[in-house]
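ARCHIVE CARD
CATEGORY: sequence design from structure
SOURCE FIELD: tokenized fold
FIELD CONTENT:
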């Protein structure tokens, strides 16, 4: 009987738990990873960009010291959060961000605040995005 409950728990945790890795987003979403300077207290509410983000299949993750904020319901395990931080922050001490394409490759890596206009222009110039726009998908 305990095994039965374990199976149910596994099924429900997979269907309701949105814990992922970046690999799960490959070919589905473009991703912006933002690593803010922990000494700054910035307004990181990007709800006003909802349509532009959806149109471009963009999901962002903001890596604060104690949590990861996102415009999606996805979360990372503590282990994956640490792995992503060490791989993409790579020693920056100030704000930095990374744009990852649909193919999972890094397209842009910059130190500084998020520049949504630059990010949108960069995404819109990508061949796959241009194809999406031609097909009416954005």
């Amino acid at each position: 009987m305990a095994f039965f409950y374990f199976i149910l728990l596994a099924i429900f945790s997979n269907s309701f738990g949105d814990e992922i890795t970046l690999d799960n987003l490959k070919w589905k979403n473009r991703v912006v990873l933002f690593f803010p300077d922990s000494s700054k207290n910035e307004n990181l509410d990007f709800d006003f960009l909802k349509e532009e983000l959806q149109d471009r299949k963009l999901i962002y993750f903001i890596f604060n010291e104690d949590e990861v904020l996102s415009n999606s319901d996805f979360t990372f395990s503590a282990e994956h959060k640490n792995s992503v931080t060490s791989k993409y922050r790579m020693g920056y001490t100030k704000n930095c961000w990374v744009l990852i394409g649909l193919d999972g490759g890094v397209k842009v890596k910059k130190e500084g605040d998020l520049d949504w206009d630059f990010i949108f222009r960069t995404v819109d110039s990508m061949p796959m995005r241009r194809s999406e726009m031609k097909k009416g998908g954005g």
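CARD ANNOTATION: The first strand starts at residue 30 and ends at 35. Strands lie at 30-35, 58-63, 68-70, 96-100, 106-111.
SHELF: design records, drawer C
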